[in-house]
Structures are given as structure tokens and as C-alpha cells.
Records
---
Amino acid sequence: MSKKARKRPPAAPEPGRYVVVPRQREFIDPELVWFALWCRANRDRQAAEALGQAGIVTYRPLEARRVLGRRGQPTVVERSPVGRYVFAGLEPGCHFRAIRRALEPPERPRLSFTLVDENGAYSLSVRPYAPEAPHARLMATEAGPVTVPAGLLQAYADAVTLWGSSVGPTGFVPGQRVRVLDGPFEGLGALVEAAGDSRVRGLVEMFGRLTSVAFEPEQLEAA
């Protein structure tokens, strides 16, 4: 008797594609001293909020990504391009301990229990409290906490938001909505993925998915 073939698990879906599009510029105050922080996994937002509540200026890198939504419609989401980094700015002369204090988890009261037996005797016990680790910590070397020049951080922030992106030789920029004028995709809309010196690569929705297609610049027009 032949053995039944084992069922293979379904193939994993292909990773979703996205296009980075311009978003509002992030201003890095050049008068502040900027410190780099390393966050716990998925805690960069909480770290930035804790610092903000303490009155400390923060920069959390976020880029705008256009993706294909659940219903097949393009939508824009904000995601961190570097994951677990946050930057905190302090006035010159302000000690970096202010950042550490802002990131300390709030105090929690110790829990106590009273046990009473049938004879009326009692005992008191206290449950030990293990403090939660902070959302982030200062990155440091033997010389002390790592600082980032404001100008360098501003240049990085501008690259993340695509601020000041110029139109390329083809006349199109990544993230731009266009319409196909000629060829097998005539009449369809597309999203510019990359614009080189002579050709434009755009994302065209086909069968519920975004497919990358190369076009000549004259085949496209702004939507």
C-alpha cells in the first residue's frame, strides 16, 4: 500500500512592495546637542513619547511608504527605516542624565498580602517587585554618550522625507502618480518607483498586485 503524500504547507506570500514618497520635513534644531538612543524592540514610539512628556525634543525617523492596501488600493503608511533608533536633543550644558530620568519606568507600589488562619494568627508577606527595563538607552562609548552633529542629522532627516528631491532627467520623481499613454498598459494608472536617465520604472496594479514595469518617458503623463 502506497503511503499518502504529505500535504505541503502553502507557499509564503511574497513580501509586500512599497515606494517611499515625500512627507513633511522634519526640522532638527541646530542649537541642541543631539544624543543617539538604542530602543528595545518595537519601543521606539514609546521612547519618543516618554521623552516628549519630559519636555525633551526628539527625532524619530519615519518615512512615508505607499503600499497596496487590503482592498487593492494604494495607501500610505509611516514606518521607521532604521527600526530601533531615536535621537534626543538637549540644550548645551544640560546633562544627559535628563534623558535617562525621562526613560525610567514609573514607580509601582509593592503588593502585600495578609494571611489569617483559623486561630486568628496572621503573617504579612511582600511580593518582590522587578522594575521594568526602560524603553531605550543612551548609546555610549568609552568617551561617553554618542552625539550626532545637528547638520548631519538634518541631512539624514531630509533624505528620509525626500525633502528637496529634484525632478530627474525623465521629468518624473519616485512616488508620483502617472497614467500610461501607450503600449500594452495604455489607460492604466501607475506609481513611479524609480526614474533613471532614460527610462521610468513604475508600479502597475495587475490582478490585485503591484507589478514593476519599465516605461519610456513619452509613454507616461502626470495623473
---
Amino acid sequence: MRSIAIAVAFLGGLAVGYFAWTSMGSFQQRGAHSADLTAIERLHQADLEATLQQDPVYLDQLWSDDCIKVDGPNGPVVGLKAMKEMYAKFKADYPGFKVLRYVPDYKSAQIAIVDGWAIEVGYVEATYQMSAKESPVSVPRTQGMRLLKRQSDGSWKFAVVGLK
């Protein structure tokens, strides 16, 4: 519980900074390094591919070790081990689950990069089927926030993710 409170406090501070900087211009124009932006774009592409494939191993690779998924199916999911367990359980419970369409729109969002952390706000749309026998379900444009963490190799992974 303490780690969730710390993450929420950290996110609150980042959000205040994000909105303060937004009123002064684009973060991308404020010195975000092109290498970071390129690596973040790789994470965006990996997220798209992993979500469409629904391979738990591939999905696990998107997250930092200390990750938090705020909007987990049964409340927040904290840590990579818990994330892996969540994906494995979902795959076992819904073996026919398929993502038919996944459109994350974080590219047009403003992004803040500070000391190995990045925050981005954007939208997600999706269509999925729980099984081949069920009708597709569409998820309308939903706002989300993602806190990214730079890894020691220069890549970026999700640290905190939540949809509204």
C-alpha cells in the first residue's frame, strides 16, 4: 500500500509540473532528447504489437520491475511479478480473447521528460472479443496517462499506467 501512495504522490507532482509546462509550450520543444523520443516511440510500437498479439511474455516486456497498473481488473496491480500473474490468469480464463483493433493516441500528446522519467497523456480506442463466439466489443476513445521510466540500457518501459 505504501508504494501505491508514493506512486500517487509522485504522479501528482508530475501532473502539476506537466500542466504548468503545458501552458508555456511543447515539452518536445523544451529540450527532450531525440534519443529518448526515439526510444519512447519504440515502446509505443511494442505496446501496439504486444496488445494486438496478446502474448503474455511480450506484454511483460513493456513494464518496469516496479510497475503499477492503476486500472487492473481487480484494482491496482503492483510490480512485474503481479503483472505477469495478471496476464497469465487472464489468458487462462479467456483463451479465445482477441484484440481486433487497438489505437493508442499518445503521439499527439504532450510529453514531459525529466531525469529518466516521462509522463504522457493521450487516448486509447479498442475493439476486442472475449471469445470467437461472442460479438466484438468497442471501447470508445478513453483518456489515459502513462508514466514511463528510462531503463539502464536507454530503452523506456511503462512504470505507471491508468485509463480514465
